[in-house]
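Write out this protein's structure.
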Amino acid sequence: MLLLLVRHGTTDLTRERLVGRTPDIHLNPAGQEQARGVVERLRGVPVDAVYSSPLERALETATPLAEDRGLDVAPEAGLLEVDYGEWTNRPFKELRRTDLWKRVQQRPADARFPGGEAMREAQDRAVGAVERLAHAHPAGSVAAFSHADVIKAVVAHLLGQHLDMFQRLHVAPGSITALQVGTGPPGLLFLNVTGKLSDQLPRRRRTVRQN
């Protein structure tokens, strides 16, 4: 399976607050433009199914691609944002002063958000979602729209990296990360791409049926 992990576009609070699972957070004009840019960057790349975190900002990013390909957006709870618990909707400038923030940056594998998920739990949940998609589309191309920490945690797992290293990855709003996932070792094709992919992705292999 070709797995295209897409981070949602920006909102008015993207750099101000850790909105987490706060409902009714929508794309701003820049985020809407990023969503349209995803469509153009994937022009010429096969997409057989579109899945998304159930949060509005992810669904709104996924919708232009789904409409362009004549597909429905299938909500997938495993792609949901990390449950930040009591940290939800707090300003970043306030959170950066906490000891837990330092731990999340340096040793995230040991971190649990107060009243929320542990990072390991969030990673396990998201990896489980990817495994379900791979089982449902073993030879297909799937676009999965999610959130920065979730995407980074999935990539770290698929590459065999310790969760403590996931903060070394960067996933910008509206960016595309491409991996091949199947029976063999996963392969990272691109991380955090904002350019056109059609002439860079490997060609889809044709399945030869034997009688």
